[in-house]
Amino acid sequence: xxxxQFDGLSNNLVHYERDNNADGYLWHRNNKPIYSALPxxxxxxxxxxxxxxxxxxxxxxxxxxxxxxxxGPLPNREGDHLSFFYYDSNTENWNSSGDIIADGKPINxxxxx
Length: 113
Prior knowledge:
The protein is mostly beta strands and 113 residues long. It has one domain (2-106). Helices cover 0% and strands 52% of the residues. Strands 4-5-6-7 form a 4-stranded antiparallel beta sheet, with no helix packed on it.
């Protein structure tokens, strides 16, 4: 499970995993960062997130996140754009290819999922 989660300083992308082999199927926070907008970096803020399990390789996960630019006022979402992240199950690391580009342009003006 991947969520946009506020930690008191910024909105981050956080990965939680469920241990299906443990009694009670306990959830655990994966401490490897996906994305953080910690100050003073002034990076876009995570607004929404969508997660799919990829068939590109066994166990890989892919995330599309709706991001709000630093300079844009809330709740005006005209500048919101989409970014792509993926989890490599072989290395157990999250990676990003950055903003999603369609027809040579970023997907901007996103208002919902």
